Structures are given as structure tokens and as C-alpha cells.
Amino acid sequence: MSAIEFDVGIIGGGPAGSATAAYLAKAGLKCVVFESELFPRPHVGESLVPSSTRVFKELGLLDQMDQAGFPRKYGAGWTSSEKAPIYDMGWEGLEADCHADVRFEEREQAGVDRNYTYHVDRGKFDLLLLQHAHQLGAKVYEGVRVKGVDFSEPSKPRINFSIGHQEVGTSVRMVVDASGRRTVLGNQLGLKIKDPIFNQCALHTWFEGYDRTALARNGSQKEFIFIHFLPVTNTWVWQIPITETITSIGVVTQKKYFAKSKEDREQFFWNCISSRPELLAGLKSAEQIRPLKEESDYSYAMKQICGDNFVLVGDAARFVDPIFSTGVSIALNSARFASTNIIQAAEKGVFNRSSFATFETTMQRGIKNWYDFISVYYRLNVLFTAFVQNPKYRLDVLKLLQGDVYDEEQPEVLNVMKKIVTEVEQNENHLWHRYLGDLTASAFQPAF
């Protein structure tokens, strides 16, 4: 096909690609989605943050989300096996507890009209979103793997893919790479940079019949997401409701601890779980219903996330450690911001890099804030729980946890956190010095 067939070609039909397609189709642009897999397909990343609600509202998807029966997520909790000693920061000797939690309703959030978000079965959720994009007018091809993009004609990129044994292509006005961790354009254009700090891996599975209140304060937290700190360096467990009776459990650790053989990885998973006896007892009483699956090559960045006739969204643009369930939220919000610029570019008929400047600036600002927040968290876990409990900073932390990270260049709460981390690092006699983690010891140096 030599003529331009579509305004926008989208590589990947996950949340970033589907949301982008939905926004563009809703605006009347002719777009096509090429998805390499056949939906539904299982996928990691099952818990959302409240900023996702804005996207669902704008795309007219909220009713379908409720009708799908996804568990409602009203808040989040963090547990550890020991309390940190009291450190007087002018907070009347507040101590970092072994349990911290927040409810999203504590802070009013512009554009979000409910006090919950969702936990999702990604197979079901991703299919719902892709079908919605199709219903709005996007052309969708599943089981079609994109080989690359030919930019030799700057105003007419050609997306090359195969159907059966035949190599074919489609010409478009611009390309959106939403290929996830395949990072099609990031690899093709030499944009991808490995994150020098985060080198994490995850082992995860589903359990039927696990008592989700085992480490909660009370039964009202049954539908919370929980992060359980482990007494293993820089290692933690996620606990995410999938249905009324099914729970996703994942162990995240540094790659250097990651066992090579399948049998050793299985043993490592259970060794980590056994470091929290209450968690072990609960899971041993439940039934594991999926094989253990691994995820690696977690964190990376790109030299740029847009250029002439292309933008990168979701995991194709950046992936950061999943400690705060940011993956799907970043995907949806990047689709939201990118689509605004793409629609404006289409109206002007100009698709050069400067057309996507607002998208690029907004995403870089938001990702940096996420990155700094996660880095502080890994460097000094007890600081995070202390800030969550402190009325002066609680809502500022909650704002970040809700996913509102894009509007400020440097939230003041992060500046205060960094300052305290520096004080703890420089004073070996500090009560919290022994709690410093080594993973992000150099995280606040320029990484890229």
C-alpha cells in the first residue's frame, strides 16, 4: 500500500495503545491498531491508581468498568515485620510503624468523582479497552506482529508487518509506539537506555482462597492492595485482589538474587514468603491456581519519547519499578496527553517533534516525580511510612499515590523526603541509618 491508509498507526493494543486509539477515533481520526497477540491474554500489572478514572470518564468506559465486576480498590496498605525507632523530626516523636495505610477518599481529586479505583484481571480489562477502541471506530488487527517502521519518506511512515508468510505494510501520517516492553521503535531507533539503578525481577502467581485480611488492620481493608516488606534486602511482596476469591501474589527482588533454574526460582519464591510467617500460613492454606511466572528487565528509559511523525507511550516509552502500581496509570495518562497533541497536529497537518512538546514535557515531569518517589521509598522505607502517618504530609503523599504527578516540577514533599534521606546517609549514628537500602543509594544523581 503506497497511499496513506490511516492518519495514525498504533503498534500494540495494550492499555496505552487501546486508550490512544479510543481517544483518536473519538476525535474522528482514522487509526489502526496492530496487536501481536490474540486477546484475551494474561498480563502482569493488575492494580490501578485513581488518576486512571479520568481516562475512563473521558472515553465513556466507567459504566463498563463497573459492570465488568472488577474488585473496587479503596486504598492501599504497607506492612513490615518490625517498627523503626522514634526519630524526632518536629513531629512529636512520630515513629515509622510496621503498618501504614491510606484511603483514596481522604483527598479530593479533580476530575475523579468516586472514592475507589479498580483491581483488574488484565486479560479481561485489556480486551474490554481494545474492544471499546474498536467500537469508537478504530481498526484493530490482532495476531499481527510489527517488524519495524520505514521512515524514509518523512511525511509517510510505513509500518511493516507480516500476515502469514507475506510481508506487507501500511502507510500512515504518524506512528504511536505502544508495544510495551518490546519497545519496537526504542530498539529500532537506538533510543533505549537501561536504567542503571533499578534492576529488578518479579515472580508472581494467583491463589484461590487466600485470606486477604491476614496482614490487614481490619476486614474493611480486604480489597486494598498491600505491599509487604520482607527482611530480604530490597525485596517485597504485592497482594492484589483479582476476584472475590482470587488474589495475585508477586515477589519483587533484585536481579542478582534471582535464581537461574525454574526449581530454584520456585524455592526462592517460597523462601521469601516464609520470611513473613503470617503470609506463608495464609498462602499455604490457599490453592495456587497458576504456574509461577517471571518478569525481568524491569526498568529502562528512552533518550526521547517523540520525534518527527512518532510518539512513544506507556511501557514503550518508560518502565519504572512497579512498587506503586504505576504501570497502567502511566500508560493511560500518556495516551491521554499524547492524544491531545496528536489531534492538534492532525488539525494543522504538521507532525514534527515540536508538535508533541507538551506531551513530552508533561510525561518527563511526571515520570521524574514517580522515579524520585520510588527511589526515596527504596532508600528508606521507614521514611515513607512515617510521612504517611504525619498529618502535615499525608495528603501530599496521597496525591502522589493517586497518580497526580504531572502538574508540579518538584513536589515539596519529595524535597523534604530527599533532605531527610541525606541527613540519615551522612550520620552513621542516626536512628534510621541501619534502615538505609542500597538499591537507590545513587538514585538522585542524574541517571540519563
Which short descriptors sum up this protein?
448 residues, alpha+beta, eight-stranded mixed sheet, 12 helices
Helical fraction equals 25-40%
Euclidean distance between termini CA atoms: 39 Å
Strand content: 15-25%
Number of beta-strand segments: 20
- Mean pLDDT across every amino acid position: 91
Shape: globular
Rg: 22 Å
Helix/strand-derived class? alpha+beta
Question: In a nutshell, what does this entry contain?
Answer:
The protein has 448 residues and is α+β, with helices and mostly antiparallel strands.
Written account of the structure:
Belongs to the flavin-dependent halogenase family. Bacterial tryptophan halogenase subfamily. InterPro entries: FAD/NAD-bd_sf, Flavin-dep_Halogenase_NPB, Flavin_halogenase. This protein has 448 residues and is an alpha+beta fold. Helix content is 32%, strand content 22%. The chain has helices at residues 15-26, 52-59, 62-67, 122-135, 184-188, 262-274, 277-284, 327-348, 357-379, 381-389, 394-401, 412-426, and strands at 4-11, 31-35, 72-73, 75-79, 99-103, 117-118, 139-142, 146-150, 158-163, 166-177, 192-194, 200-208, 225-229, 236-241, 246-254, 287-288, 293-295, 300-302, 306-307, 310-312. Helix 9 (357-379) crosses helix 10. It is globular. The model has no long low-confidence stretch (mean pLDDT 91).
